[in-house]
Amino acid sequence: MVFPEPAGILDANQIMQGLDGAPRWESVEFEAQHVIHAGDTAVLSYRGTGQRPGNAPYRVLCSSTYVRQGGDWKMLMHQHTLRD
After folding, report:
1. Contact indicator for 32, 49 with CB cutoff of 8 Å
2. Mean pLDDT over residues 58-64, rounded?
């Protein structure tokens, strides 16, 4: 996964460790959602706004790439870009 600094580029183990004890989102909104399929691959893109208690809204452009393996969709890559 790729996040704005200071998080940066994280592998699966780092993501799982970071989720442990992380504050939950109070609210999340998605806009301008798009899906592109190419065989057993799908790319989702969207604008997201999240709010955690006591923090300013987190506004991002996101894309997630999924692959179908044995009938299940698995996330291959996820990326956030900060927006105003």
Report:
1. no
2. 97
Backbone φ/ψ region at 68: left (φ over 0), alpha (ψ -120 to 50), beta: beta
Secondary structure class of 70 (helix, strand, coil): coil
Burial of 39 by CB count in 10 Å (0-12 exposed, 13-18 middle, 19+ buried)?
exposed
For the stretch 14-49, pLDDT in tens is: 999 988 888 899 999 999 999 999 999 999 999 999
* Residue 51 confidence class, pLDDT cut points 50, 70, 90: very high
Closest CA to 82 of 64, 63, 59: 59
Q: In what order do the strands lie in the sheet with 41-51?
A: 27-38, 41-51, 58-69, 72-82
Q: Which domains does the chain have, with CATH numbers?
A: 12-82 (3.10.450.50)
